[in-house]
């Protein structure tokens, strides 16, 4: 039996078999634990960032969203390890949380309960598509240039939110946006951005989380007295240890409200954005870690996609935006993580933070803003693969890229990118080059615009 086929068989035997035969995966128990810790450190910023984004003017309670964030991250990661036997961590996705808050709730005035209902429905669709293996067909039908462009657009969107939350960029009646005043929060944000960038450049494990913590600590000496203004930078009230909040957002989703014509576009966005994230992550990490089968496809990709779908499905009832597989899992793979033990370790490490909601809530938005900007940089990496010289590819890709931040909506980037690609190909007499699934997606794009 060839080595690659043998490796594939090992993974199919499951998590508990792999625990007894870690040497078959060329790893050790201690190496898997270190890899799980590394993955946790690189993605743990979501514990702080996700609740801050989802509670920004939506009416959701911080403690409730924090509890939901940790439970989704823990349960999903552990399930990935036990069921798919793969070293991938999961958590509520960046970009989708921003869409949930700033587009769906604050701009379109959809209640957060209805938005959670949309997350749940999209999760159910994910599960169905994963079971019948349609989800992979859909993603493969979408041109690589569009997938990379939308991911880059989401990166710009997330970075823009970071600049806005820090007060570095503010609104302007003349130019729409402009540079903000250099008050204490902005100055600490710039210092934090520099520190975080240096940590990332030196490949410090957990650099984003450390950047958030260091920026927060720098603000502590000022308390109620700041350098150039009188804003309260850090204010802590309550106990250090707190019980998880299972009341404020748990099972508060409004499924009936999400089953309306006007919610087609949001569900459409949750669906496709999560698909882009998960497939891209699986393919990218599998290639780096040599976790591919004899056909060159990621090992156990069907099981991994189903876990990703379940992660989104449980996110709605628990009270957060869609869960997805994190590209930061690559850091654990680089440390030697090769089996589900890495993912299980990552999932377990989230749980202690259930009891520190008061402490985490004191972290100011300008301290998390540097992490958002850096995440934006990460997500721009793929645009180098887009051939902008080929206008048939370049024009749709550019629309998908630029319209996400300018319209403050991931939906609009996806819709106009897909529609323009299909129309340009048809008008150029190349209709046969378009995958049949793209016509169906284009139809849904039109319906989403009508329902807008």
Give structural attributes.
single chain; mainly alpha; two-stranded antiparallel ribbon; two-stranded antiparallel sheet; 3% strand
Indicate the topology:
Blueprint: H1 3-12, H2 15-20, H3 29-43, H4 46-54, H5 62-84, E1 90-92, H6 96-105, H7 112-131, H8 134-141, H9 144-166, E2 169-172, E3 176-179, H10 184-201, H11 207-219, H12 255-258, H13 264-289, H14 301-318, E4 323-325, H15 329-334, H16 340-350, H17 357-361, H18 365-379, H19 391-407, H20 410-427, H21 436-450
Antiparallel strand pairs: 1-4, 2-3
Helix pairs in contact: 3-16, 4-5, 5-14, 5-16, 7-13, 7-14, 9-18, 9-19, 9-20, 10-11, 10-18, 11-18, 13-21, 19-20, 20-21
Q: Would you give an account of this structure?
A:
By secondary structure, the protein is mostly helical. The chain has one domain. 64% of the residues lie in helices and 3% in strands. The longest helix is centred in the middle third of the chain and has 26 residues, at 264-289.
Q: Which radius of gyration do the C-alpha atoms yield?
A: 22 Å
- What class do helices, strands and sheet pairing give? mainly alpha
Q: What letter string, H or E per element, gives the SSE order?
A: HHHHHEHHHHEEHHHHHEHHHHHHH
Number of self-contained structural domains: 1
In the sheet with the most strands, the strands line up as: 1-4
Instruction: Kindly report the oligomeric state of this protein.
Output: single chain
The mean pLDDT is 86
Number of strands: 4
Helical content stands at 55-70%
Distance between the termini: 55 Å
Shape: globular
| Unreliable sequence segments | 224-230
How many strands, what sense, and barrel or not for the largest sheet? 2 strands, antiparallel
Count of runs of 4 or more consecutive helical residues: 21
What percent strand?
under 5%
């Amino acid at each position: 039996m060839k080595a690659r086929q043998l490796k594939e068989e090992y993974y199919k035997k499951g998590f508990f078999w792999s625990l007894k035969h870690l040497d078959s995966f060329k790893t050790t128990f201690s190496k898997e634990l270190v890899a799980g810790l590394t993955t946790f450190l690189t993605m743990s910023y979501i514990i702080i960032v996700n609740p801050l984004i989802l509670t920004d003017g939506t009416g959701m309670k911080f403690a409730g969203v924090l509890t939901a964030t940790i439970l989704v991250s823990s349960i999903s990661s552990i399930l990935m390890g036990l069921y798919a036997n793969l070293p991938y961590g999961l958590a509520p996705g960046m970009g989708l949380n921003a869409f949930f808050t700033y587009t769906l709730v604050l701009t379109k005035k959809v209640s957060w309960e209805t938005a959670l209902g949309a997350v749940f429905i999209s999760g159910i669709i994910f599960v169905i598509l994963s079971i019948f293996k349609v989800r992979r067909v859909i993603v493969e039908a979408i041109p690589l240039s569009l997938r990379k462009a939308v991911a880059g657009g989401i990166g710009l969107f997330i970075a823009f939110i970071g600049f806005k939350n820090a007060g570095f960029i503010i609104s302007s009646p003349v130019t729409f946006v402009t540079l903000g005043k250099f008050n204490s929060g902005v100055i600490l944000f710039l210092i934090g951005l520099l520190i975080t960038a240096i940590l990332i450049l030196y490949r410090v494990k957990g650099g984003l989380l450390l950047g958030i913590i260091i920026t927060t600590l720098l603000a502590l000496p000022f308390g109620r007295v700041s350098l150039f203004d009188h804003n309260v930078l850090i204010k802590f009230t309550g106990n250090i240890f707190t019980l998880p909040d299972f009341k404020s957002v748990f099972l508060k989703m409004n499924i009936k409200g999400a089953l309306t014509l006007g919610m087609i576009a949001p569900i459409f966005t949750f669906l496709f954005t999560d698909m882009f994230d998960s497939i891209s992550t699986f393919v990218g990490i599998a290639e780096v870690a040599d976790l591919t089968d004899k056909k060159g496809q990621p090992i156990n990709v069907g099981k991994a996609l189903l876990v990703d779908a379940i992660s989104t499905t449980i996110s709605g009832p628990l009270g957060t935006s869609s869960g997805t597989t994190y590209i930061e899992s690559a850091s654990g793979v680089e440390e030697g993580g090769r089996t589900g033990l890495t993912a299980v370790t990552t999932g377990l490490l989230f749980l202690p933070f259930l009891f520190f909601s008061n402490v985490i809530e004191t972290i100011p938005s300008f301290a998390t803003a540097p992490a958002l900007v850096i995440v934006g940089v990460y997500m721009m990496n793929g645009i180098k693969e887009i051939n902008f010289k080929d206008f048939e590819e370049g024009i749709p890709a550019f629309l998908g890229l630029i319209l996400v931040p300018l319209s403050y909506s991931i939906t609009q980037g996806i819709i106009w990118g897909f529609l323009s690609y299909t129309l340009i190909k048809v008008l150029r007499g190349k209709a046969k080059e378009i995958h049949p699934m793209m016509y169906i997606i284009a139809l849904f794009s039109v319906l989403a615009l009508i329902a807008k």
